[in-house]
Each structure stands twice: as structure tokens, then as C-alpha cells.
TrEMBL record:
Keyword Manganese: no
Superkingdom field: Eukaryota
Pfam families: adh_short
Species this protein is from: Athelia psychrophila
Keywords of the record: NADP, Oxidoreductase
A molecular function GO annotation: oxidoreductase activity
UniProt record similarity statement: Belongs to the short-chain dehydrogenases/reductases (SDR) family.
Designated name of the protein: NAD(P)-binding protein
Coiled coil: none
Length: 261
């Protein structure tokens, strides 16, 4: 099974902080010397990362906000492929997490809910759809290609405190399994990563960072374990405590879905 070491050009969507940034820099450091394109909303952060790590000449940045409409996402994909026609790997790390309390339905901001759904699921599926013709063609020419959705351990166990977030991750997980089966006869591979609670800025806007920092998995430890799975070419990569949920709720599911083809 091919893995991340076979990648020549990697796009990391949501790479200005946290998991996305850490994976992007780990991939940049691979002995195979791939080109790495980091994408995110904040240009200042993109500039800082490139300034600190761009000496190799293989690191580039693209400002993008995935929380937009289909036409804008299509233009983003077209622009990326026009500049990087050998792009073979896309990691989807962009995500937002919000608390919603449905016992007080008047407090639920449906605009925030729709934004979370679009960022975590709809926009990712849309971009995958636009990238796939390129990836399928490139793979048919002999270059293994990879789509790496980053879901969550919460895709397997619904979190009542962030119900919409869990639903978006469960949807992306389900889609990833189905997509992987559909692409069985191509050399385009889906490698889904299931993070546990990981050191991240995602919790800052909820005011839970101090509490969660006492129990979360360090970013360095997460990155090491995730990269091992990506190097092996694992189709599903549960990390840390997510392994327990995966063993209990997901083990064997891929084989069952394959029988439904």
C-alpha cells in the first residue's frame, strides 16, 4: 500500500495552526522532499510559517476560506491545480467547533450552525468533488494520489456538548468510507485520521482551553502517531484514545461496506 512518502506535492487545507500546521511541517521534513502547500484564512500566519520554514524552497502558501459557496470553492481548486498540476495529496484539516444548547433553542445561532456544517463537511465534499477528476487522471498515469480527511474520535461517539460538530465529523467519516470503496479500482486512496482530544486553538473561543489542556494529547505525540499511519498507507488512522472507540465501533465496518459494492 502506498503512503505519504510517495507524495510529491501536498496541499494542507487549514494549516495555519494546530493539527494542520503540525502535519504540514512533518511532511515538509520527509526525506522524499515533497512540495508542501499550506492553505488557511490568515495571511499573516501563512507568512510567518513560510518565513520560519521556507528555506528549503518547497513550502508555499495560499490564502483561502473554505466557508464559502460552490463557485468560490471551484475557483480555488482551479487556481491551485493551474499552479500545481502535479498535486497528488490533499489533507483536509480546516474545522470549527461550537457549543449549542438545544434546551435553550432561542440561544442556538443557526447561522453559526450552518457555517460549522459547511466548514467541516459540505465544503470539504465539494472540494473533493472538484479535485477528483485531476487526481483520478494523475493516478491513472502511475502517481499514487491521496485524500486525507481529518475527522475525529467524536465521529464515533456523539458529543452532547458540541452536537453539530459531532454530526459533521460523523458525516465526513461516513462519506470517507463510502468514497474509499467507490475508488477501490483507482490509485486514489482515502486515508482518514481520527484525532482524539488534541492540543489545539479550536477550544479557545469556547473558553475551555485551560481545562482541556490538562488531559489532551500533545500535538507532537499526535503528529508522530498520525505520520506513522500515513507512511504505512493506512486507510483509517485512529490516534491515541480514538483507538478504543475505533476498536469498539468501527473495526470491520470497511469490510462490510466493501461487500455492498
Amino acid at each position: 500500500m502506498p503512503g505519504i512518502n510517495d507524495s510529491k506535492c501536498v496541499l494542507v487545507v487549514g494549516a495555519t495552526s494546530g493539527i494542520g500546521k503540525s502535519l504540514a511541517l512533518a511532511i515538509l521534513a520527509l526525506a522524499s522532499r515533497p512540495t508542501v502547500i499550506i492553505a488557511g484564512r490568515r495571511q499573516d500566519r501563512l507568512d510567518d510559517i513560510i518565513s520560519a520554514h521556507g528555506n528549503a524552497g518547497r513550502l508555499e502558501g495560499i490564502q483561502m476560506d473554505v466557508d464559502t459557496d460552490r463557485a468560490a470553492l471551484k475557483k480555488i481548486v482551479e487556481d491551485v491545480l493551474a499552479k500545481h498540476p502535479k498535486l497528488d495529496t490533499i489533507i483536509f484539516s480546516a474545522g470549527i467547533q461550537r457549543r449549542f444548547e438545544f434546551t435553550s433553542p432561542e440561544s442556538v445561532d443557526l447561522d453559526h450552525l450552518a457555517s460549522e456544517l459547511n466548514t467541516n463537511y459540505t465544503a470539504i465534499v465539494t472540494m473533493i468533488t472538484y479535485f477528483l477528476p485531476h487526481l483520478i487522471k494523475l493516478a491513472a498515469g502511475g502517481q499514487p494520489c491521496f485524500i486525507v480527511p481529518i475527522t475525529s474520535g467524536l465521529a464515533m461517539i456523539p458529543p452532547p456538548w458540541v452536537p453539530n460538530y459531532g454530526a459533521t465529523k460523523a458525516a465526513l467519516h461516513s462519506f470517507s468510507v463510502s468514497l474509499s470503496v467507490q475508488l477501490t479500482d483507482t490509485d486514489v486512496h482515502i486515508m482518514e485520521i481520527f484525532p482524539p482530544l488534541v492540543e489545539s486553538e479550536i477550544h479557545d473561543q469556547q473558553g475551555t482551553t485551560e481545562k482541556l489542556s490538562k488531559i489532551w494529547m500533545s500535538l507532537a505525540e499526535f503528529t508522530r502517531e498520525a505520520m506513522e499511519g500515513l507512511a504505512r498507507g493506512d486507510m483509517q488512522i485512529p490516534v491515541g484514545r480514538s483507538k478504543e472507540s475505533f476498536e469498539r465501533f468501527e473495526k470491520g465496518k470497511m469490510e462490510i461496506v466493501n461487500m455492498l459494492r
